[in-house]
Fold this sequence. Notes:
The protein has no helices and eleven strands. The chain has 121 residues and is an all-beta fold. The radius of gyration is 14 Å and the shape is elongated. The relative contact order is 0.32.
Amino acid sequence: QVQLMESGGGLVQPGGSLRLSCAASGSIGGINTMGWYRQAPGKERELVATIINGERTNYADSVKGRFTISRDNAKNTVYLQMNSLKPEDTAVYYCRALLFLRIGGPQYQYWGQGTQVTVSS
């Protein structure tokens, strides 16, 4: 059984910073991609940032220059450093992983339960 456990959300003032973490646990053969998505009230879930094979990164235009995604391969953990936060960054942030349960096997998608980020004065 694979689980993604997120942490680090909370309430922060505009211009502040937060760091989200997501740890994958369970019987994992390997991880291809890890990433962060977010969903604000009344809106669809959208991509924030992804990191492929622990190296290649991709960001939504709205967060470029403010957010940084990184990964600790040894810990199967992905981080999202969020700086210069704005009220429009308020959302539930979800971790997503594309991983293999065994080497050479098929790839599966897993989601975390989400962590709330609120940017408000």
